[in-house]
Amino acid sequence: MVSKDKLIIFDTTLRDGEQSPGASMTLEEKVTIALALERLKVDVIEAGFPISSPGDFEAVKAVAQSIKESTVCALARCVEADIQRAAEALLPSNNKRIHIFIATSPIHMEKKLRMQPQEVLERAVRSIKMARKYTDNIEFSPEDAGRSENDFLCKIIEAVIEAGATTINIPDTVGYNLPEQFGKRMKYLIENISNADKAIFSTHCHNDLGLAVANSLSGVLNGARQIECTINGLGERAGNASLEEIVMAIRTRQDIFPCDTRIQSNQLVACSKLVSAVTGFAVQPNKAIVGINAFAHESGIHQDGVLKNRETYEIMRAEDVGWNTNRMVLGKHSGRNAFKSRLESLGYPFRSEEDLNRLFENFKVLADKKHEIYDEDLIGLFKNSNKKEADKITIQNIHIKSRLGHPAQINVVLGVHGVEKEASSEGNGPIDAAFKAIEKIIHSGAHLQFFSLNAIHEGVEAQGTAKIRLEKQGKIAHGQGVDTDIVYASIKAYVNALNELF
Ligand code: KIV
Ligand code: ZN
């Protein structure tokens, strides 16, 4: 048997994924996701961009503290302060990587950086040498490589490898490349850079033309041995290459690929659900691998075929990606210990006994409303509990009257800086009425740019998760709310966004 190369899976859900508008995550949520990625056996977890904010710095540090097996990576520009901050955040990790990037395309160098190519090259080399003081595991990305000139890419990559970079990532930052073109570029670079054998080449493809997975796979067929990707394809604009699609394409087509990953594919669905619950970004039903319809056969001909022989219409087994596996489900009879250990395994750090008691009480209330409590519901519990301390606006009460054929009526009572205020309104359905009543109290004048409402998981008992984007004078605020009552979930999301806005 021909031995297969190892394909490194570099997950950037917590960094590039978090750059999706509205996908920001709390520190606890990032640690929870990082632990799930470790269970999935992701090789490298890019935890964030520590210089970008104190919150991101703390989150990278917390992930570096919690993760023992995967490598933890932090992003930095070719700037000394960025590199120092990344190194500081990664201090708790025994297995760390610093990821350094600078743009190399003519348009980025001229219009954004206002630098000559030679200056860009020198700065990249200086930065790699600086980062080497903290670790030998250095990744370099020529940003917008997808629109860069091959000659310049060869020059700069050769120089950074010489300076100590051990992974060379080729980002198609704006998702402009086509699969054949991206593969050709990968092959050209590997064949024409004299010291290419001293580094692992990697792909980082954005999905603007819906080609991120195809481009990444083409990169692998042409010599790349690391793929950067995200759970559910989360990421800037149209997103990144989706981890679950990449992993299953490679595993299913071992007749074509000369490599394989270490990924525990039966964790893919759980990971996808977790990321969806944390970010509030629903997974489209027909999404490959993790969409609810990915293995559902509707047509009679297909059903008949599958019953006779599964392989007539199925190229993968649903259980191999984590559908239909028995998940531990909590319910109203679950004790405090079972609850605590489930939360701990999700990486939720208890601040105190009171914190645990408060969450356990909320859990019992939820368990009275719905019989089975999944991990996604527990994430919803953190979400609802996280807010309480800092909120200026709180929900005190709501009273809804809704009759078919009549406008819905609602009365909302809010606490505003500790003072109770109430308003009533009619609307085109209870959610519309509720938002109008809230505006009567708050007078935010914000524009509702986006509203979505989805079930956290399947079944009529599922909790609803509402997402909202408000805009006021150019400032954007995102809100999320989770509840078994979808009107209440929507009100929570609206109030959550208002709290961020003011
Ligand atoms: O898309 C991109 O170019 C990036 C780099 C920082 C790797 O995310
Ligand atoms: Zn990117």
Automatic annotation (TrEMBL):
Catalytically driven reaction(s): 3-methyl-2-oxobutanoate + acetyl-CoA + H2O = (2S)-2-isopropylmalate + CoA + H(+)
Domain of life: Bacteria
UniProt KW keywords: Acyltransferase, Amino-acid biosynthesis, Branched-chain amino acid biosynthesis, Cytoplasm, Leucine biosynthesis, Manganese, Metal-binding, Transferase
Necessary cofactors: Mn(2+)
Pathway: Amino-acid biosynthesis; L-leucine biosynthesis; L-leucine from 3-methyl-2-oxobutanoate: step 1/4
SMART domains referenced in this protein's UniProt entry, alphabetically: LeuA_dimer
Record EC number: 2.3.3.13
Domain Pyruvate carboxyltransferase per the UniProt entry, residue ranges: 7-269
Alphabetical list of SUPFAM superfamilies matching this protein: 2-isopropylmalate synthase LeuA, allosteric (dimerisation) domain, Aldolase
GO cellular component: a single term: cytosol
GO molecular function, one term: 2-isopropylmalate synthase activity
Example of a GO biological process term: L-leucine biosynthetic process
Region described as Regulatory domain: 394-502
Pfam families the UniProt entry points to: HCS_D2 (PF22617), HMGL-like (PF00682), LeuA_dimer (PF08502)
Family the entry assigns: Belongs to the alpha-IPM synthase/homocitrate synthase family. LeuA type 1 subfamily.
NCBIfam families: leuA_bact (TIGR00973), PRK00915.1-3 (NF002086), PRK00915.1-4 (NF002087)
Subunit composition and interactions: Homodimer.
PANTHER family: 2-ISOPROPYLMALATE SYNTHASE 1, CHLOROPLASTIC-RELATED (PTHR10277:SF9), HOMOCITRATE SYNTHASE-RELATED (PTHR10277)
Protein name from the UniProt record: 2-isopropylmalate synthase
Organism: Candidatus Berkiella cookevillensis
